[in-house]
From TrEMBL:
GO molecular function: glutamate dehydrogenase (NAD+) activity
PANTHER family attached to this UniProt entry: NAD-SPECIFIC GLUTAMATE DEHYDROGENASE
Protein name: NAD-glutamate dehydrogenase
Ranges where the NAD-glutamate dehydrogenase N-terminal ACT1 domain occurs: 35-178
Enzyme superclass (EC): oxidoreductase
Organism in which the protein naturally occurs: Pseudomonas bubulae
Domain NAD-specific glutamate dehydrogenase C-terminal: 1271-1608
The NAD-glutamate dehydrogenase ACT2 domain, residue ranges: 407-496
Pfam families xrefs: Bac_GDH_CD, GDH_ACT1, GDH_ACT2, GDH_ACT3, GDH_C, GDH_HM1, GDH_HM2, GDH_HM3
Matches recorded under InterPro entries: Aminoacid_DH-like_N_sf (IPR046346), GDH_C (IPR048381), NAD(P)-bd_dom_sf (IPR036291), NAD-GDH_cat (IPR028971), NAD_Glu_DH_ACT2 (IPR049062), NAD_Glu_DH_ACT3 (IPR049064), NAD_Glu_DH_bac (IPR007780), NAD_Glu_DH_HM1 (IPR049059)
Ranges of residues in domain NAD-glutamate dehydrogenase catalytic: 732-1226
EC number assigned by the record: 1.4.1.2
Record's keyword terms, sorted: Oxidoreductase
């Protein structure tokens, strides 16, 4: 990065001067400026701007200080680390400043020394300054560059920045060394001329040589020396020496006087060892050769860092003995290396000789080839090699030219200190790596200590490397050149060569060549260093196996030379992206492997695609002794599936190694563990995993038991299977005895329980492609699982996969309920269990019992958008649905078809339906699509509410159903919500189904406040009509929020507030409307106040629990989000709560609200419309799908028909809501008086295990006694629970009886279908798959809705008959008295007469039904036949019922008339009033008709007689007295019923007796008179008894027991008198 900017060097200088001006005087500035210009002379602007201006000024001043005083005799070297404190400037590097009088080689030598010591040079500024100095060396002036003249000296200034030296010692050493180098430069330069003069001397001595040397040679030597002086040699030193013999060689003796240049420094202080030479060197030095060449033993520190060359002239006497050697040391100048060998003296003779010997024609190809070889041969070789050796080498080189092979030529230096090597290598394989390999072989073989190399490239196909190896003269190594060459060739045979040949060998030539072409760059260097070529071939095969389906391959290996159990390795192969280490490490560690290291390698395909190989080294975890070969496949398989995400990455995976289990078996154990977590076993998954790892034998046995139950079972007979299972179970139990830790024992036993409780699984069921499924589903019998949280369902399916988990709980074979997208991964089963409990009571109105499902997507995209999250949830939903259907029976052509490859340990179970719930509102079509793919018999009846189903929101069915409840509460308070304006506080928003539809149920509503999770809507005094229209507008928008509401139409003091606001100002209107006193409230405080507002209706259409009981804590509620705003039931000031949404209040909260006079039912009563509608849809679809399959209707026609019946279905559903809330009102009316009946009902249900009071929050006996003492009975909320339980119990009883098979009773199923279907498809309806269930449901609902919650219980107790008998008798009574007709008449009086009167009228009808049913049960015990009895009694009753006027007489008639007149005055139609007022007498018609049957008399006469007997004997009054008896306990109730039954029987008996008095004539009166006369004494006795009874003050059961006895005597005497 640049620290400043400058337009040009001049601009820079200008800025620098400005910076310098702050530090120096004005007078000095021009000089410093001139200096600075020269100092930064050749440095580029770019480089300068990379440094701070202050630092540039600092280094300029620092150099200037050095210049200010200087003695040329004492060169200056400063090495320091500039810092602000000491120097006023800084640099990240170490600064080196050198000032020296100008000499050649200074800069080269300093740079060489720094490089040699390993310092990088970051900045180098060098300049030669022309200066004038004073006598003491002080600087007088700096002159322009290049100025010469008297008194002007040239001084070289160097400034360098090098790698920072941290220690002071290092700085000192460096400055000393640099001073030394400068000293060497000075010495060499000083003696340069003397050395040249020495050459001249020696030229003369050549001529004077006494030894007989050829004149030509002498001339050539002289030419050479002259050539040398002619600027071809940089002289560094000169010496003369003689050789002395020693025992094992010799030593050199220098003449110190001869030293010139560097030899003065280098030869000082040599030891005897330094001077010693080997015998072969002695021989060489004794050879009478005039001119010889060699290399110096140490690199030069002056000029260039090369080994200097020696040029020697030997003084030889006449006998050929060497007298002394005169030796120059120096470096050939660069021109030598460029000159042709033909012009260099001495060498040119060798070249001519070689050409002569070769015999090649100069112009011919080989001649040219030879000339070229010689020309480029290293000069060292030409100088030093004897001609014979040189000839052989040159000829060999000529022969290998243009042949792609490696050749090596070796030559040893005569002193034995160097080996010279020429290596020829084909250019295409030459690389630094190859050169290093050659170097390595040579250095090893020659035991060299140092090596220098030069590489030469030409047009030739061969590259040449010249290597000079420094060897120890003492090591006499005998080298076989051929062997050495072979070794070099082998070393240069690249890994790539081996790999290429192996690939072709393994893959075959065609494929092999393709593979090599596909990966042109092959394997990376790091890989080649670690692995042999044959490993690469194996790895390439693995890479070739990668595919879409197989994106990851793994292989284990043990590196050679390692003993087993030490270190293991595995390679992972993967395409496109590298595997993140953070993903892979935890997987390997969870598999029980400790990772020691990882090495990734990338290969690139010719098409640009990348492939990755990851090499992992690891050891097995503590205490694991593994046979990797044996576990290789299992481990690989496990790893690959974990990486893919098919299996989870956790501690269970250790079982792959510890227990040797395949990954799916581990996943099975994990699935069970995750289920254990859901059923609250109380141990976390880590502990369960470690338990299994601690007891791998048991873990293995458990998987074996599972396999036996669900896989081997297919091939075994039932006995064999039983036997095998028992043996395995026994083995597990025996092993469990050795488990010391109690918790571990508990976990393992629970595993055993779960496997035994598993009824079905898809674990061994392949998918459509024959592969294992990616998810598991298990069907449990929950009653076999100990300590399961209650309530315990009948069946449960648990679906598990790493992506999703879910449960489906069913409380019976035919059960329904929605599937929820839950976000409670930790305890979604607990959530579903709570919901299914509510579903169970809600479903009392429909055919199926309760069911509920929930699934949790476990891998929702982090930070994903709404669509991505939705897509993943749908994928999870699909898995969940598939998991359910995989193990569910199917029906085909009426026959049951079990699921394929599923062992069933339970009975046939084909009924499975689902529905939408929170989060899955739009998923029904998806579920139906899956069901249709599976060929499931229900087809699109599987999930209700799909595109060919009833859209609940469009129908508004749930809200309408809840509104029915609201209407009733207000009707009973004298308000018609459709006409009268009521104030409402709502929870939810207009986009919601229940809230939106609910607040459009009446255009008279005043919605004064509402809130959802975002906004608070407040409109204190709304105008009903305009606000209704605005709500409608919002509802019709595709998505809306309260913020879309038109605030322009809102009343004063209102507004829409954000729930995230800090506080909200409370207007005067708000204060008045909501009874708030504060001026400001936080949103939460305001919501709390709104919930307590004194309004008419609180309508809940939202999610959350807002009301609890004061006895409950917020934690008990389990809805943390609303803790701050939740209120208690006794704080609610609204009159009515409408529960459209689920769980808006806790059950105890409702009870508290009811006890404080509030009107509410429960959520499952209010919002049962939805589930009821869905059930109608499913039952209609099952009916019509049969018709479609039979070919009598097309799918399109079916869908049209379904659509056309929307309103009828809605009508049926709302009818159920109406009847059920009416039944609750009827029950609530008498809840206090009838408390004992409810006690007995609850006790009976509890005793039979059908009810758990605590779970349903029903009061205990003690609490009930307190209730009664306070004057309260059960509340509507509690009666809501009991009405549901009573229906559920009755449904079950009927289903298990013959009632649904009775042709007459079966007609009740028609009430479950729209009338248009009944008329069209009556035949198909009788064949409906759920006929029995529908019949049972309809009768149970009809009976409980009309006769009350405790009806069946009372009659069971008083008659000892079964619930089914009671229901059968009820249907007869219902139909003969036409009770539904009369009920409808009363219901039609809504808002015409007070609700209390309607309820009173219905109460009369209920009493009639109750008594008549008991009469049938008692008088027709075990011989009821609905069709026969209805046909017989119906017409008689119809006829007699209209004649009450004629039949009744005396006070009885008067009483009847008074009652019916009162009804008529209250607004009841006359016919209805007469009927209801006469229910007691209508009941009496039953024994009358029976008497008519016995006597054969006309029924009307019998009736007349009957009533006449009643009047004559005052039986009507007597019966009234008995009915008025107070009941304090069950015995008294039973006694009272017995008394009434006795009177009925006796009055009938007397009537028959009277009718048989034929002698008295036809007149009834005459017959009666005769009978009274004949039994005069007994009649009188009876009448006196009545006088006593009238006179008695108290009412005592004993009195009536005696009286009844008297009446019996009278009846019997009457008979005996016949």
């Amino acid at each position: 990065m640049a620290f400043f900017t400058a337009a040009s060097k001049a601009d820079f200088q200008h800025q620098l001067q400005a910076a310098l001006a702050q530090h120096i005087s004005e007078q000095a500035l021009p000089q410093v400026a001139l200096f600075a210009e020269q100092f930064f002379g050749i440095i580029s602007l770019d480089e300068l701007t990379q440094r701070r201006m202050s630092d540039l000024a600092g280094c300029t001043l620092s150099a200037w200080r050095l210049l200010e005083r200087f003695d040329p005799a004492q060169p200056q070297v400063r090495v320091f680390n500039p810092d602000y404190e000491r120097h006023g400037w800084q640099s990240t590097h170490t600064a080196v400043e050198v000032l020296h009088h100008d000499l050649p080689f200074l800069v080269d030598s300093v740079r060489t020394e720094l490089n040699r010591r390993g310092y990088s040079i970051h900045t180098l500024q060098t300049t030669v300054l022309s200066v004038r100095r004073g006598g003491k060396g002080e600087l007088l002036e700096i002159l322009p560059k290049g100025t010469t003249g008297e008194g002007v000296s040239q001084e070289s200034l160097m400034y360098l920045e090098i790698d920072r030296c941290a220690h002071a010692a290092e700085l000192n050493v460096l400055s000393k060394e640099l001073e030394q180098v400068l000293g060497e430069v000075r010495v060499a330069v000083a003696d340069f001329e003397p050395m040249k003069a020495k050459v001249q001397e020696l030229l003369a001595s050549v001529d004077n040589c006494q030894y007989a040397v050829d004149a030509d040679e002498k001339a050539e030597v002289k030419s050479f020396l002259e050539w040398l002086v002619g600027n071809h040699f940089t002289f560094l030193g000169y010496e003369e020496f003689v050789v002395r013999d020693d025992a094992d060689g010799g030593h050199i003796e220098y003449d110190p006087d001869s030293f010139l240049g560097l030899t003065k420094l280098l030869r000082a202080g040599l030891t005897a060892e330094d001077l010693r030479i080997e015998d072969y060197a002695v021989s060489y030095l004794r050879e009478p050769t005039l001119l010889s060449f060699a290399k110096a033993a140490h690199p030069s520190r002056v000029h260039r860092p090369a080994y200097p060359d020696y040029v020697s002239i030997r003084q030889i006497d006449a006998s050929g003995k060497v007298i002394k050697e005169c030796r120059f040391m120096g470096l050939y100048t660069s021109s030598v290396y460029g000159e042709s060998v033909r012009v260099i003296p001495y060498i040119r003779r060798k070249v001519a000789e070689i050409e002569r010997r070769s015999g090649f024609q100069a112009k011919a190809h080989l001649g040219k080839e030879l000339a070229q070889v010689v020309e480029v041969l290293p000069r060292d070789d030409l100088f030093q090699t004897p001609v014979d050796e040189l000839f052989n080498t040159v000829m060999s080189i000529v022969q290998i030219q243009e042949r792609n092979k490696i050749r090596v030529f070796l030559r040893k230096d005569p002193y034995g200190r160097f080996c010279y090597c020429l290596a020829y290598v084909p250019r295409d394989i030459y690389s630094t790596e190859v050169r290093q390999k050659i170097q390595q072989v040579l250095m090893e073989r020659l035991q060299a200590s140092d090596c220098e190399f030069w590489t030469f490239f030409s047009e030739s196909v061969l590259a040449r490397v010249q290597l000079i190896l420094r060897v120890d003269p003492k090591n006499r190594i005998d080298i076989d050149p051929l062997l050495l060459e072979k070794e070099v060739v082998q070393a240069c045979r690249s890994w790539q060569d081996d790999y290429a040949s192996l690939v072709v060998e393994s893959f075959g030539e065609a494929n092999g060549t393709k593979v090599l072409a596909d990966f042109p760059k092959g394997f990376p260097a790091g890989y080649r260093e670690r692995f042999a070529a044959h490993s690469a071939v194996v790895d390439m095969q693995h890479l070739m196996n990668l595919s879409e389906k197989n994106p990851l391959v793994m292989s284990f290996y043990q590196p050679l030379g390692q003993s087993a159990g030490q270190e293991l390795h595995c390679k992972l192969y993967h395409a496109d992206t590298p595997l993140a280490l953070s993903d892979v490490l935890p997987i390997l560690e969870n598999l029980g492997l400790r990772v020691l290291g990882e090495f990734p390698y990338r290969l690139r395909h010719a098409n640009g695609r990348e492939f990755w190989i990851h090499d992992f080294a690891f050891t097995a975890g503590e205490g694991l002794n593994l046979d990797i070969q044996q576990l290789n496949d299992t481990l690989q398989d496990a790893f690959v599936h974990i990486v893919r995400g098919d299996a989870e990455n956790d501690a269970f995976n250790r079982l792959v190694l510890t227990a040797g289990l395949p990954w799916r078996d581990v996943a099975l154990l994990r699935a069970y563990a995750r289920y254990l977590k859901q059923i609250r076993l109380g141990f976390d998954l880590g502990y369960i995993a470690s338990t299994l790892n601690n007891h791998t034998d048991i873990a293995r046995e458990l998987t074996r038991l599972f396999k036996t139950r669900f896989y081997l079972a297919r091939k075994l007979t039932a006995e064999d299977l039983e036997d095998k299972q028992l043996r395995l179970e026994q083995a597990i139990l025996t092993a469990l005895d050795d488990v010391q830790v109690l918790n571990e024992d508990r976990i393992l036993r629970r595993y055993l329980d779960l496997i035994k409780a598993t009824l079905r699984t898809n674990f061994y069921q392949p998918d459509g492609n024959g592969h294992n499924r990616s998810y598991f589903s298990f069907k449990f019998n929950p009653h076999l699982i100990p300590e399961l949280p209650r309530p315990v369902p009948k069946f449960e399916i648990f679906v598990y996969s790493p992506r999703v988990e879910g449960v489906h709980l069913r409380f019976g074979n035919v059960a329904r309920g929605g599937l929820r997208w839950s976000d409670r991964e930790e305890d979604f089963r607990t959530e579903v269990l709570g919901l299914v409990k509510a579903q169970q009571v809600k479903n009392s109105v429909i055919v199926p019992v309760g069911a509920k499902g929930g699934f949790v997507p476990r891998r929702l995209p982090l930070g994903g958008g709404r669509d991505e999250i939705q897509a993943e949830a749908i994928a999870c939903y699909r898995i969940f649905i598939s998991g359910l259907l995989d193990i569910t029976d199917n029906l085909k052509d009426g026959a049951l078809v079990p699921p394929l490859n599923v062992v069933r340990h339970d009975d046939d179970d084909p009924y499975l339906v689902v529905a939408a719930d929170k989060g899955t509102a739009t998923f029904s079509d998806i579920a139906n699509g899956i069901a249709i793919d599976y060929g499931f018999w229900l087809g699109d009846a599987f999930a209700s509410g799909g595109s060919a189903g009833y859209d609940h929101k469009k129908m508004g069915i749930t809200a309408k159903g809840a509104w029915v409840g609201v209407q009733r509460h207000f009707k009973e308070r004298g308000i018609n919500v459709q006409k009268d304006s009521i104030s409402v506080v709502g929870i939810g928003d207009m986009a919601g189904d229940v809230f939106g539809n609910g607040l459009l149920m009446s255009d008279q509503l005043q919605l004064v406040a509402a809130f959802n999770h975002l906004h608070i809507f407040i409109d204190p005094n709304p105008e009903p009509a305009s606000s209704f229209a605005e709500r409608q507008r919002l509802f019709d928008l595709p998505r809306s929020a309260w913020s879309d509401y038109d605030t322009g139409i809102m009343s004063a003091g209102g507004g829409i507030f954000s729930r995230s606001a800090k506080s909200i100002a409370i207007s005067a209107q708000m204060k008045e409307r909501f009874a708030i006193t504060a001026d400001r409230l936080t949103p939460t405080e305001l919501l709390n106040a709104l919930l307590k507002a004194p309004v008419d209706l609180l309508w809940n259409g939202g999610i959350g629990t807002y009301v609890k009981a004061s006895s409950e804590s917020h934690a008990d509620v389990g809805d943390k989000a609303n803790d701050a705003l939740r209120v208690n039931g006794n704080e609610l000031r609204c009159k009515v709560v409408g529960e459209g949404g689920n769980l808006g209040m806790t059950q105890l909260g409702r009870v508290e609200f009811n006890l404080n006079g509030g009107g509410s039912n429960t959520d499952f009563i209010d919002n049962a419309g939805g589930v009821d509608c869905s059930d109608h849809e499913v039952n209609i679809k099952i009916l019509l799908n049969e018709v479609v399959q039979a070919g009598d209707m097309t799918e399109k026609q079916r869908n049209q028909l379904l659509g056309s019946m929307t309103d009828e279905v809605g009508g049926l559903v709302l009818g159920n809501n109406y009847k059920q809330t009416q039944a609750i009102s009827l029950a609530a009316r008498k809840a206090y008086e009838r408390i004992a009946e409810y006690k007995r009902l609850m006790n009976d249900l509890e005793a039979r295990g059908k009810l758990d009071r605590a779970i349903e929050f029903l009061p205990s006996e003690e609490q009930l006694n307190e209730r009664v003492a306070a004057g309260h009975g059960l509340t509507r909320a509690e009666l809501s629970v009991l009405i549901s339980y009573s229906k559920i119990d009755l449904k079950e009883a009927l289903l298990n009886s013959r009632v649904p098979d009775d042709d007459y009773l079966t007609r009740d199923m028609e009430t479950a279908f729209p009338p248009m279907l009944v008329s069209k498809f009556a035949e198909a309806m009788r064949r409906h798959r759920l006929k029995r269930e529908i019949v049972s449901t309809q009768i149970a609902n009809d009976l409980v809705n009309h006769m009350g919650i405790t009806f069946v219980e009372r009659l069971k107790e008083s008659t000892g008959m079964s619930a089914a008998n009671v229901a059968g008798a009820y249907v007869i009574v219902r139909d003969i008295f036409h009770l539904p007709h009369w009920f409808r008449q009363i219901e039609a009086l809504d808002y015409q007469v007070p609700a209390e009167i309607q309820l009173a009228l219905m109460d009369e009808l209920m009493r009639l039904g109750r008594r008549a049913t008991r009469w049938f049960l008692r008088s027709r015990r075990n011989e009821l036949d609905a069709a026969r009895d209805v046909a017989h009694f119906g017409p008689h009753l119809a006829a007699l019922g209209l004649k009450l006027d004629e039949l009744l007489e005396g006070p009885t008639r008067e009483g009847w008339q008074t009652r019916y007149q009162a009804y008529v005055e209250a607004g009841v139609p006359e016919l209805l009033a007469r009927m209801v007022a006469g229910t007691t007498h209508l009941y009496t018609l039953l024994p009358i008709i029976e008497a008519s049957d016995v006597t054969g008399q006309n029924a009307a006469d019998v009736a007349k007689t009957y009533f006449a007997v009643g009047s004559a004997l005052d039986l009507t009054w007597y019966l009234q007295q008995i009915s008025n008896l107070p009941v304090e306990n069950n015995w008294q109730a039973l006694a009272r019923e017995a008394f009434r039954d006795d009177i009925d029987w006796q009055q009938r008996a007397i009537t028959i007796s009277v009718l048989q008095m034929t002698e008295a004539g036809e007149s009834i009166e005459a017959r009666l008179a005769l009978w009274l006369e004949q039994n005069h004494s007994m009649v009188e006795r009876w009448r006196s008894m009545l006088v006593d009874l009238r006179a008695a003050t108290g009412s005592d059961y004993a009195m009536y027991a005696v009286a009844n006895r008297e009446l019996l005597d009278l009846a019997l005497s009457g008979q005996s008198g016949l």
